[in-house]
Design brief:
The complex is a heterodimer of chains A (263) and B (250). Chain A has 263 residues and is mostly helical. Chain A contains 11 helices and no strands. Chain A has helices at residues 4-17, 20-37, 47-80, 82-87, 93-125, 132-157, 162-178, 183-188, 192-204, 214-218, 226-252. In chain A, α2 runs antiparallel to α3 and α5 runs antiparallel to α11 (226-252). The longest helix of chain A has 34 residues, at 47-80. The two termini of chain A are 30 Å apart. Chain B has 250 residues and is an alpha/beta fold. Chain B folds into 2 domains: 1-80 and 156-227, P-loop containing nucleotide triphosphate hydrolases (Rossmann fold, 3-Layer(aba) Sandwich), CATH 3.40.50; 90-154, no CATH class. Chain B is built from 8 helices and 11 strands. In chain B, α2 crosses α3 (111-124), α2 runs parallel beside α4 and α3 packs across α4 (140-152). The longest helix of chain B is centred in the last third of the chain and has 16 residues, at 170-185. The chains are: A mainly alpha (263), B alpha/beta (250). The A-B interface holds A 2-3, 5-7, 9-10, 13-14, 17-18, 80-92, 253, 255-258, 261 and B 48-49, 52, 55-59, 75-76, 78-79, 81, 83, 85-91, 93-94, 98, 102-103, 105-108, 147, 150-151, 160.
Chain lengths: 263, 250
């Protein structure tokens, strides 16, 4: 534990000092301001509409940020040659992997909190409100989903360069959000082998839709029952643990020669 | 005797498309405490690979290696080690002081001890005045110095330097030489690789010559190189013939 937190802290500092999150925040603020002043389909600046678009953008930006930060960390250590300096210290490979993940996740979580704050300010400015308990629950699940996304990206970043790891992670995350929840619909129109493959994919890939409580906030459905909420958190925890273990297993036997600087 | 560095029949092989390539074969190194040990050889001889095995970046295919009596595969083996790579670089978004804080914490140094150690290291590398500036604003020489400070933050018993004078101007080389002499005077062991044979001649007590992944000569510099002979000419003879008479063959 002694080495995990210093590593995580440097990842955290790197994010804020490279100003990635500020850029995204400015973009989001600008987009929300523009959106709230438009009158699309006659809906105008309706509070529900602002909250919906704002939360969609929050999910999109936070997922992008999670993948970008995590995909960069380990490959950057290799390309700079600082991986050698780090591993020459009494740092285990597990501590390095866990520290990198923890730093990236913490930074993305704070950025997400700020995004939620931005949405809330805009909604309140229009005379609306976000239901507090439901929003807190949604934020908790959102941050858990980001932990899974960073952990999945971590796996790819142990063996690939930044671009490759980011591309694959984005495709996987996008598919998990958009395609996987719809697989049961496709399966009903397929038979035999194709249906079997689809069902395997359905169960093997992460279900991010479980972590998405946007509609609960927008339509003020109240809170998710705690037993259900806890089960979703445990499902997330299982994914996070599994991904970090896989990342460690792929990283622990990795040789770091001088040639790695050229990756 | 307890050796600071000890390898036994150390071998490293890599799988390539052309087959298995033996990068290191039967390396038997023994480095005594308090010595400055030069590790020399032509390009591609395996110097950096050997260092990387010692530091745990590469797992040996055969044999074993120990640092200060601990198997190099254990993180504990690196608790009392300092390492400066050939082309040092670091987190440029940190200040020099933050880098030393980070490194100290990795060694478990905290609080007042860490602050005292940082101040002492900054003074040693003459960077007290620039310690709070971002590393991204440092010159190459300053970068080298702050990386050196982070390599020594834990007051290591063994310092491993990979081509420490490569690319430095005469003043920078002089500073590295002075640093190595200072470490020796404090009883530390320094293990360094270099192409600069004049540097090795100036600062080393012992040396090993690596050719084609094998240690072909190892011993005290005074025993290996005859009086009046230059290390460079001896080195050239060794590389050409692999093992001249009169040397202690490894």
């Amino acid at each position: 534990m002694n080495t995990i937190f210093p590593i995580a802290y440097v990842v955290w500092l790197g994010l804020w000092r490279r100003k990635d999150a500020y850029v995204l925040l400015i973009l989001m603020g600008a987009m929300l301001l523009v959106l709230s002043s438009l009158n699309v389909f006659g809906l105008g600046g309706k509070v529900v509409y602002i909250a919906d678009i704002g939360l969609v953008l929050t999910w999109l930006f936070s997922a992008l940020l999670a993948v970008q930060i995590m995909a960069r960390e380990l490959p950057a250590e290799q390309s700079r040659g600082t991986i050698h300096v780090l591993l020459a210290k009494p740092v285990t490979r597990f501590a390095l992997v866990l520290g990198k993940w923890l730093g990236a996740w913490a930074a993305v979580s704070v950025a997400t909190l700020v995004f939620y704050g931005t949405v809330a300010v805009l909604v309140y400015a229009r005379g609306g409100h976000l239901p507090g308990p439901a929003t807190a629950q949604a934020l908790g699940l959102h941050i858990t989903a980001l932990a899974i996304i960073t952990a999945i990206t971590l796996i790819f970043s142990t063996r690939m360069n930044h671009d490759a790891a980011a591309a694959i992670s984005l495709i996987l995350t996008g598919a998990a959000f958009l395609v996987i929840p719809r697989i049961p619909e496709f399966v009903t129109s397929e038979t035999g082998f194709t249906a079997g493959v689809m069902l395997v994919l359905y169960h093997a890939l992460p279900h991010f839709e479980l972590f998405d409580l946007r509609q609960w906030i927008i339509h003020d459905f109240g809170m998710v029952a705690w037993p259900v909420y806890t089960q979703i958190l445990l499902y997330g925890l299982a994914w996070i643990t599994g991904c970090i273990l896989v990342a460690w297993m792929t990283f622990r036997r990795r040789h770091f020669s001088r040639g790695d600087r050229m990756l | 005797m307890s050796w600071v560095i000890e390898t036994e029949k150390l071998g490293v092989s890599f799988q390539t498309r052309q087959g298995t390539v033996a990068a290191l074969q039967d390396i038997n190194l023994k480095v005594e405490p308090g010595q400055v040990f030069g590790f020399i050889g032509p390009n591609g001889a395996g110097k950096t690979t050997t260092m990387h095995v010692l530091l745990g970046f590469i797992t040996p295919t055969t044999g074993s290696a120990r640092l200060l009596g601990t198997d190099v595969r254990l993180p504990l083996a690196r608790q009392h080690i300092g390492f400066l790579p050939e082309h040092p670089d670091t987190y440029r978004f940190l200040s020099g002081r933050e880098l030393l804080q980070f490194t100290g914490r990795l060694f478990g140094i905290r609080g007042r001890d860490l602050r005292r150690r940082i101040d002492s290291m900054l003074e040693e590398v003459d960077m007290t005045a620039t310690a709070d500036r971002r590393i991204s604003t440092y010159s190459r020489g300053m970068l080298q110095r702050i990386c050196l400070a982070q390599a020594l933050i834990n007051d290591p018993d063994l310092v491993i330097l990979d081509e420490p004078t490569g690319g430095l101007d005469p003043i920078g080389r002089q500073q590295i030489r002075a640093m190595i002499a200072g470490l020796r005077s404090r009883g530390k062991t320094v293990f360094f690789s270099s192409h600069e044979l004049s540097e090795v001649e100036l600062v080393c007590d012992s040396m090993a010559i690596l050719v084609g992944g094998r240690v072909v000569v190892q011993g005290k510099l005074a025993d290996v190189v005859k009086p009046g002979q230059r290390l460079e000419s001896y080195f050239m003879d060794v590389v050409r013939s692999r093992a001249p008479a009169g040397a202690t063959h490894a």
